[in-house]
Amino acid sequence: DAQESRGLGDVYKRQLGNTLIFAVVYTALNLFVALTISLWLNTRMKAAGAWRVIFFLPVITPMVANALVWRLLLSQDGLVNSMLATVGIDGPNWLSDSAWALPSVIAMSVWQSFGYNVIVLSAGLSAIPKELLEASRIDGTSAWQRLRFIILPLLSPSLFFCSTMTMIGAFQVFVQPLFLTQGGPGESTNTFVLYLYRNGFVFDRLGYASALASVSYTHLTLPT
């Protein structure tokens, strides 16, 4: 029993670390990609609305279907490794290599959800007065200066909303590791919700799973 408890404790610490790494990296990449694309779409380019629809499509498609497609793409003989082979690169087994499994889950998750933030940030960018940007151009400011001193400060409410919602979703990640890697290899992609699910409904440790749920609820709802 003591050995089993130590084993459960090690797995618990590992999955908490995986969840934290996923949340931080996923949120940062999601916001970076969404902001970059939103700025690009805001340059008065043609068919910007059509591009927004294209970027938003993964958000409304079933996550399970997307995960299964990505599982095929990232397999040892999948499309990604086939494309790498054409340029002389021997791609890894993305989902079976502990060094690449979690980054693969993060990449799929960013692709799945960044379109939502594109819509929100595009709306925020469209609300910025054009007169401010025109006046700054007349004053001779560079594109970086306009981004740093005008666009980002005025876009901060939208960025705060996107970062908050994205971080909340990141800590609830479940479908992606379940269907892509089953939490493996080893425990390299095991996350908190997946760990709770497996203990409660796969290993029949209902008491332990209830304790995990209680601890997570307490940490999320009570002030520190």
Write structural notes for this entry.
This protein is mainly alpha-helical. It has helices spanning 2-41, 48-60, 63-73, 79-85, 101-126, 130-138, 143-171, 175-180, 192-202, 206-221. Helix 1 packs parallel to helix 5 (101-126), helix 5 (101-126) packs across helix 7 and helix 9 (192-202) packs antiparallel against helix 10 (206-221). The longest helix has 40 residues, at 2-41. The radius of gyration is 21 Å and the shape is globular. It starts with a helix and ends with a helix.
Topology diagram in text:
Layout: H1 2-41, H2 48-60, H3 63-73, H4 79-85, H5 101-126, H6 130-138, H7 143-171, H8 175-180, H9 192-202, H10 206-221
Strand content: under 5%
Largest sheet: none
Helix content class: over 70%
Q: Give, in order, the helices and strands.
A: HHHHHHHHHH
User: Structural class of the helix and strand makeup?
Assistant: mainly alpha
Brief descriptors of the model:
224 residues, mainly alpha
Short structural description:
The chain is mainly alpha-helical and 224 residues long. Helices cover 75% and strands 0% of the residues.
